[in-house]
What we know:
By secondary structure, this protein is α+β, with helices and mostly antiparallel strands. The protein has helices spanning 2-9, 34-42, 46-49, 89-101, 152-157, 215-221, 223-233, 285-305, 311-346, 355-362, 368-375; strands spanning 13-17, 31-32, 55-57, 59-64, 67-73, 84-86, 106-109, 113-120, 123-131, 134-139, 142-145, 161-163, 168-176, 186-190, 193-199, 203-211, 251-253, 258-260, 264-265, 268-270, 396-399. It has two domains: 2-55 and 81-164 and 258-330 and 377-399, FAD/NAD(P)-binding domain (3-Layer(bba) Sandwich); 168-253. The strands form five sheets. It has a seven-stranded mixed sheet with strand order 5-4-14-15-16-13-17. It has a six-stranded mixed sheet with strand order 7-1-21-11-20-19. A three-stranded antiparallel sheet has the order 2-6-3. α1 (2-9) packs parallel to α8 (285-305).
Amino acid sequence: MMLGFLLARAGVEVVVLEKHADFLRDFRGDTIHPSTLEIMYELGILEEFLKRPHQELHQIGAEIDDFTVTIADFSHLATHSKFIALMPQWDFLNFIAEQGKSYPQFHLHLLSEVTDLVEQNGHIVGVRAKTPQGALEVQADLTVGADGRRSIVREKAGFAVIDRGTPIDVLWMRVSRQAEDPNQTLGRFRGGNIVITLDRGDYWQCACVIPKRGFDKIQQRGLPAFREELVAAAPFLGERVHELKDWNDIKLLSVAVDRLQEWSRTGLLCIGDAAHAMSPLGGVGINLAIQDAVAAANILANPLLHSTVTDADLKKVQQRREFPTRMIQGLQVLAHKRVVNPYLSGKVPIRKLPLPLKLLQRFPALRRIPARAIGLGFRPEHVRTPEKARQSRGMIDTLF
Length: 400
């Protein structure tokens, strides 16, 4: 959606295909980091965006058994918004779609599920999709697969996947929020359980971290036992965990950390989770995807306008974005192995903070380091595409 908006803004004819009738799906990434908010500022739409209901997270902290720690402080970032905005992803997508629709080059097709790629002489020249009206084929000079970790695009293209492995999955659920609840969004490590509570205004969006493929065992123990584990990690939830009436109220996210060996072939590019699935640790996935979109627009807008896109242009996107992807994935895998998995496996209370956390508490200035890694990433992008959409007509670019 962001890439479609940026390219339409630059004058490129764009078709965005979305298989659902709307964007209203729960338990998606809801964290919009300072890097993304800075993109909004550069586009001149930040003020309007922040009028949408959201919560602001100025620090990231955790409760680790008997310790409360602050890990990252965003107040020192060199950005206009020094916080993470918590906003349902459907509101974010609707906002970007509205911005895109203000340009005549932007075309959003809902209820259009891509089923295959169209290939001619080894080149990808578009996609096939199914719609309520029947089969649809869209011809395109460039097809961009932005269809997530279960990407049909990368499957049909036959891209090789490098699996970094991950020992966890995540269960998502919502529990009502009360006025007397703590006002902090935190990771809560207690009694060998890990629960992240995200303040969504009138409810908590909760993520329970579990061992990989461990959901069946949890279900076998029964819902009452699972509720007890939630309360053990987040005692303030109390009796409200009984709002979880059955397992249908709990959604499983099978966590993957992987990336494509090659992100492109002639006529085709993958970005976001389709190119590199991320762990939910740090909530960085959606923001890396936005950074991919900005980099792709910066590199490809002019070649698209002049019908000169080459394989080398597409490779430049991967060359630009692979380093930050590798760095973040490396940190996520390290955190899984050194922190999350041992805690889930040990079920032993922590009596003494690890040295890195001790240093973060003793020297608050050090919190700027994780704040930059989480809030901005390792290669933040900036909008370089000029706004000239109302002056020129371009080619067709397909996104889904």
